[in-house]
Amino acid sequence: MPLGTAQHEVEIQGTRIDMDESAQITGSKKVYQGFVFSVEDRGVLLPAHEGEPVAIRRQVVCHAPSVVLLVHDTANDRYLAEREYRAGSNGFAYGIPAGLIDPGEDPEQAALRELREETGVEPEAGMMTIDRVGTFYSSEGMSDEIAHVMVMHLDRWHGVDRHFDADEYVESAWVSWGELLHLPIVSSNSVIAVQHETLRRLREESSRKS
């Protein structure tokens, strides 16, 4: 049955899976615990349109929620770019500020803390607007990590001391919009933030011309 119909079903080995109902996690075993993430081996029941549910297994990387920030200095029309070592690509990757949300923080609080700690940028009170781009899974097929992506427009800010973790090494610099677009940024959530800002700038330019 095609997507968009009232009843969503897919047939797996003779069983029609009812995709309008929720799957049920029947058991979970932690098979790895690291400093940043853990891995769980989960049993899941997929609801069937008729007959017994279908049992499957999945391994899930469990990760704290995160924030991803494209930071815009509006007075000088420039953006914060970063470069640091990323284990997944085993290289010094270009990107934008990002970090984990600590327990008890909301995304905006985490964003301001990460901005201050990583880059030494502290927005002046009442001199900031935030475009909340959206909330996205980094890789929903294998991880439960949720990323809160936003664009922060700073009309005025001041510098403060940076504070890194013991094994964290981050370079940051203000770059022009054109320079930002030419950086080889390949992290999906960072690309989402840059594309969102691209559309905003195009709308603003169109409005000025009309």
Strand content: over 45%
Low-confidence stretches: none
Secondary-structure class: alpha+beta
- Nearest-angstrom radius of gyration? 21 Å
Helix content: 10-25%
* SSE sequence, one letter per element: EEEEEEEEEHEEEEEHH
Q: What is the number of domains?
A: 2
What is the distance, rounded to the nearest whole angstrom, between the alpha carbons of the first and last residues?
46 Å
Overall mean pLDDT score? 92
Structure described in brief:
With 210 residues, the chain is α+β, with helices and mostly antiparallel strands. 20% of the residues lie in helices and 45% in strands.
Q: Explain this structure to me?
A:
The chain contains three helices and 14 strands. With about 210 residues, it is α+β, with helices and mostly antiparallel strands. It folds into two domains: about 10-65, no CATH class; about 65-210, Nucleoside Triphosphate Pyrophosphohydrolase (Alpha-Beta Complex). The strands form four sheets. Strands 6, 7, 8, 9, 11, 12 and 14 form a seven-stranded mixed sheet that branches. The protein has a three-stranded antiparallel sheet with strand order 3-4-5, with no helix packed on it. Strands 1-2 form a two-stranded antiparallel sheet. The termini are far apart.
